[in-house]
Amino acid sequence: MIAYLECFVHENDTESRPDDDVSSLSKALDLQGSIHDCEGPTDEASRDFGGMNSLAPLFFIRPSNADDVARVVKEAARSSNLTVAARGNGHSINGQAMADRGLVLDMRSLDDHFRVVRANNGSVYADVSGGALWEHVLKRCVSEYGMAPRSWTDYLSLTVGGTLSNAGVSGQAFRYGPQTSNVTELQVVTGKGEIFNCSETENSELFFGALGGLGQFGIITRARVLLQPAPDMVRWIRLVYTEFEDFTRDAELLVTRQDEDDSFDYVEGFAFVNSDNPADGRPSVPLDPDQVFDPTHLPRTAGSMLYCLELARHYRNSDDPSIVDMGVNRLLGGLGFVERLKFQVDLSYLEFLLRVKRAEEHAKANGIWDAPHPWLNLFVSKSDIADFDRTVIKKILKDGIGGPMLVYPLLRSKWDTRTSVALPESEIFYIVALLRFTPPYPTGPSFENLVAQNKEIIQYCTKKGFDFKLYLPHYRSQDDWKRHFGNDRWSRFVERKTCFDPMAILAPGQKIFPRVSQP
């Protein structure tokens, strides 16, 4: 088997046909799943949502279960230099889920594993496949059990294992923490091809290492996710601000209110351009086609950049509408938004959580979904966010980015620092997500120019000594990774790598550790 794989790596078997290769490898591995030859840079396994990288693997493998995943990893471990990348729904930006002339696993092909578990203490959990899409988990939990996970991402066509390997952040994280803080058990296949169940009390180093571990210590094949009763309806609200100071004051006030009766259930925010650009200007704010952003309601002091708080309040179909209105108005009392620039709609809980799905459909119709996406995601400390706004948002990004510019606060105390995620030191820090949707070149800037702009922003933050971290990080050198984690956390990261993936087989696209050759 190993000799067979090596002939591909060293390109000795030049006469073999792709169909013969696949057939022979399938028999050798004896998987319950399937193996597919890769057809070049346009093949699904060779690209990702970022659209800026293309690396062809030897084979695209669709495993059926954890045993299949373990079998593939073990065979790669016996080779001299094969690597293995777990690919979810392909939404990495910088080739993190690619394996150049390695083996890519399509995690979506894992057997459907869905089971609701009720613990003795009354807590309810869902056991789900690491390859399940969150939108499918949502629909099944709500339709069959009236329950739902507590913490989400904005876009739900992502796999469970994919988001847990990073963090998983949305507007619920201020209360419940990221998705990594809302799982109690994992099944993980390590870089040695060993399968472990792990939790806070069992194989805890692997559990916390895999959560936010960028795929470096193991491949998540199953997760136990904490559930709560799902509401029926959502009041979705957007409030416009002209001053960043007022925007951040109110956002921080709302996220530090932890009493569910005295706070919103979802808090996010974004910056937008004071223009009529539909992508990132005033028209991007209203929540309904019948709503209009009237710029005459803005004070004369309004600048070129504006801000929007995005809020949601859950309720039941049985709740009296007047009580819902009264509760929302009470929570809005004292906030400093522009009074006549409040937008709101009522929609079902499922419609609210799947709201980005509609944006996806619109982007696909406009042809920009498949264009390059040079996104940049950062965590910036509260102490530095005003300076970041003055220079980055108001100057570097003053013309917009062709997509959302998310800016909203999170609470460090809601994150479990035993996981592998690197965070700023302050209790309140902001996620800044520059979600660029690039127009077809040459009508707009090339993605190379936008990548250069991202680097300029990172260099500015570094030069100013900001307390910041990249979220969904991407670095090219181990020195940069060491700076990202800091000395102590980097040492722990290296120790976990040595323990669980000593040959650096897993997730080569992260470019953290070079493959260790088999002696």
TrEMBL record:
Species name: Prunus armeniaca (Apricot)
Required cofactor names: FAD
EC number of the protein: 1.5.99.12
Family membership noted in the UniProt record: Belongs to the oxygen-dependent FAD-linked oxidoreductase family.
Recorded GO MF terms: cytokinin dehydrogenase activity; FAD binding
Keyword annotations from UniProtKB, A to Z: FAD, Flavoprotein, Oxidoreductase
Stored Gene3D superfamilies: 3.30.465.10, FAD-linked oxidases, C-terminal domain, Uridine Diphospho-n-acetylenolpyruvylglucosamine Reductase, domain 2
Lineage: Eukaryota, Viridiplantae, Streptophyta, Embryophyta, Tracheophyta
InterPro entries, per database record: Cytok_DH_C_sf, Cytokinin_DH_FAD/cytokin-bd, FAD-bd_PCMH, FAD-bd_PCMH-like_sf, FAD-bd_PCMH_sub1, FAD-bd_PCMH_sub2, FAD-linked_Oxase-like_C, FAD-linked_Oxidoreductases_BP
Record's catalysed reaction(s): N(6)-dimethylallyladenine + A + H2O = 3-methyl-2-butenal + adenine + AH2
Superkingdom of the source species: Eukaryota
Name of the protein in its database record: cytokinin dehydrogenase
A family per Pfam: Cytokin-bind
Any one of the GO BP annotations: cytokinin metabolic process
Record domain FAD-binding PCMH-type: where: 52-230
